[in-house]
UniProtKB/TrEMBL annotation:
Cross-referenced SUPFAM superfamilies: ARM repeat (SSF48371), Toll/Interleukin receptor TIR domain (SSF52200)
Cleaved signal peptide residues: none
Listed GO biological process terms: signal transduction
Record protein name field: TIR domain-containing protein
UniProt cross-references to Pfam families, sorted A to Z: TIR_2
Sequence ranges assigned to domain TIR in this UniProt record: 469-555
Domain of life, source organism: Eukaryota
Cited InterPro entries: ARM-type_fold (IPR016024), TIR_dom (IPR000157), Toll_tir_struct_dom_sf (IPR035897)
């Protein structure tokens, strides 16, 4: 792929001209040069990545190309491109020869345009018309499959499949992988999946996967063959969402095939084989191979799917993948590998924070999909939250996650509500986590401030304090909190405070245990302080009265902190701060 194409200005004129050129390719082939196919293909690739209304207008010309007779013709007449031309001196059979040679010859530019560029645009831009297009183009592609498989499948199976892979054979394999990828796209529609029950495609795909060379660790598998196997597995994964088809696949011993393929060198083959196993057997978590590598691939697919508007990546829908992960996370080693991964917890937080599409684009199917994502998400995160303080502290630190989990805990789906409330209960019962984390930073937290406004004093149970005060170590917060403290003292209140230090949390715990009201001086610095959050969290758990006071202008209480203060009225001294 040419990833160095500069992004053109995608104005109306640019799209109009490109639409005209693409439509010409759907009608005419005799006068089109390879260079023109390449140029138009590159321009289509550029706009494919864009999500604008102007780009959507290119869908109809693309459909005309895919519906034209040229699509099937290029599979019936595979041609190679020119490849890379290299000039220089080369050693051939021990002799130095000067001249020009061609290397890495692949499919011709015309074939690349119809097989790859047009389908890739379709995959990203047919969303609003997916059912309509599936009922027309999808069925046509199923009809084409018989011709395409009859002509090219033999290079992968039987005696011919054992022969060395030359350039033409590799090109035919790549062509097959492109067409199977098109089938994968249309199997996202249930009506198309059902069509496979009356076709021989499943049997033919299984023959590809039974190739023993795939699992022979001493044999190097050609990349083109690997691409066919990857797409074949994804196709069976999509088809396996139908009960009738998964029943057929069980009878055809796909389970044994996947057990063998999950140990091959290619990570995508390993990954799809593993998630296929979860469809075939409820005890698939017992058969996880190389969990460290598998967890990384799972995170990659989830992360990419979360970012896509359609919540799907490489033909695998997010809500289905999360359902597979529910089963796989029963395996302790797999969960530990997920948590060790760099983006592990972050990715899990992302998918629980997915919201419904805009109202104008929303329909019952979309809402059902998001509901399934949430259901699996809370189930997985509930399981993850039991693995020590690290996941707990990261979950608490994300305000968006906390806001969303609180919403889900009051939702209509019983399973989701139950798991969400379980997460909240688990987070709320880890009162010392923030303190333990703060110990790592004690050198920084233990510093005293010469300008300390509030004079701290040791907790003395014999003194009848009226309330406690909790504030961050930020200078501005201490000044404002000091003014509040002094004002209360002049009014006759007995106020207890504790300075920042290694033992601050333990001393505040003793004070909070007395059930006295605690006045918390809220700010962004307070939210960021592990010690402050531990104090207010402990007070919430002990059911001590909490008086929330905002001491920072424009600060908005949200997330876990909002949950802890229990929806109490915030006394905001914003105006007072700036005028006095």
């Amino acid at each position: 792929r040419d990833d160095n194409i500069k992004l053109a200005i995608l104005n109306e004129t640019y799209i109009t001209n490109l639409s005209r050129d693409v439509e010409e390719l759907s009608r005419n082939e005799s006068s089109i040069s390879p260079a023109k196919y390449k140029s138009i293909g590159q321009r289509v690739r550029v706009v494919t990545k864009q999500e604008t209304k102007e780009v959507e207008s290119l869908l109809d010309p693309i459909l005309k190309c895919l519906n034209s007779s040229f699509y099937l013709n290029i599979f019936e007449n595979i041609e190679l491109g020119r490849g890379n031309v290299i000039a220089g001196k080369f050693v051939i059979h021990g002799k130095v020869i000067s001249g020009i040679i061609q290397t890495n010859r692949s499919l011709a530019t015309k074939h690349i345009f119809f097989m790859r560029e047009c389908p890739e645009f379709l995959f990203r831009h047919d969303y609003k018309r997916r059912k309509e297009i599936a009922n027309s183009l999808g069925r046509k592609m199923l009809e084409h499959t018989k011709t395409i498989f009859n002509q090219h499948l033999s290079i992968l199976i039987g005696e011919e499949g054992k022969q060395p892979v030359d350039e033409m054979k590799a090109a035919r394999m790549i062509a097959l992988s492109y067409h199977i990828k098109v089938l994968n796209h249309f199997t996202l529609i249930r009506s198309i999946r059902k069509e496979f029950l009356s076709l021989s495609i499943i049997e033919q795909i299984l023959k590809i996967l039974q190739d023993r060379s795939l699992t022979d660790r001493d044999q190097i598998v050609n990349e083109a063959k690997t691409a066919v196997v990857e797409q074949s597995l994804i196709l069976l994964y999509s088809l396996g969402q139908e009960k009738e088809i998964i029943g057929i696949l069980r009878k055809k011993n796909l389970f044994d095939i996947c057990l063998k393929l999950r140990i091959v060198k290619d990570r995508i083959i390993r990954f799809v084989s593993q998630i296929l196993l979860t469809l075939l057997d409820k005890d698939a978590h017992k058969h996880i191979h190389e969990p460290h590598s598998l967890s990384k691939t799972c995170i990659e697919y989830v992360d990419k799917a979360v970012k896509e508007t359609r919540k799907s990546y490489q033909g695998i829908k997010l809500h289905r993948l999360l359902k597979n992960l529910e089963i796989m996370t029963v395996n302790d080693t797999f969960i530990e590998c997920l948590l060790e991964a760099k983006q592990g917890i972050t990715v899990f937080i992302k998918y629980i924070c997915i919201k419904y599409f805009d109202e104008k684009d929303s329909d019952s199917e979309n809402k059902e999909m998001i509901s399934r994502i949430h259901n699996s998400a809370v189930s997985i995160i509930w399981r993850i939250s039991s693995y020590g303080p690290k996941p707990i502290s990261k979950l608490k630190a994300n305000d968006l996650f906390i806001d969303q989990i609180l919403i889900l805990s009051k939702g209509k789906t019983e399973n989701t509500k139950r798991a969400a409330n379980g997460i909240i209960w688990r987070l709320g019962n880890e009162d010392k986590i923030r303190f333990e984390k703060s110990q790592k930073k004690r050198n920084q937290e233990n510093k005293t401030d010469d300008d300390q406004v509030i004079e701290p004093e040791e907790w003395d149970e014999s003194i009848p304090y009226d309330l406690l005060i909790s504030y961050s170590n930020k200078t501005n917060d201490k000044i404002i909190s000091g003014k509040i403290y002094n004002r209360l003292i002049t009014k006759g209140y007995r106020v207890y405070s504790e300075k920042s230090g290694q033992n601050r949390f333990e001393l505040m715990q003793k004070a909070i245990d007395s059930k006295k009201p605690i006045l918390v001086c809220l700010s962004s610095a307070y939210r960021a302080s592990t010690v402050c959050m531990a104090e207010v969290e402990y007070a919430s758990k002990q059911s001590s009265p909490i008086i929330p006071v905002i001491v920072e202008a424009k600060y908005d209480v949200q997330g876990w902190l909002k949950h802890l203060i229990g929806g109490k009225k915030n006394y905001a001294f914003k105006t007072y701060i700036h005028t006095n």
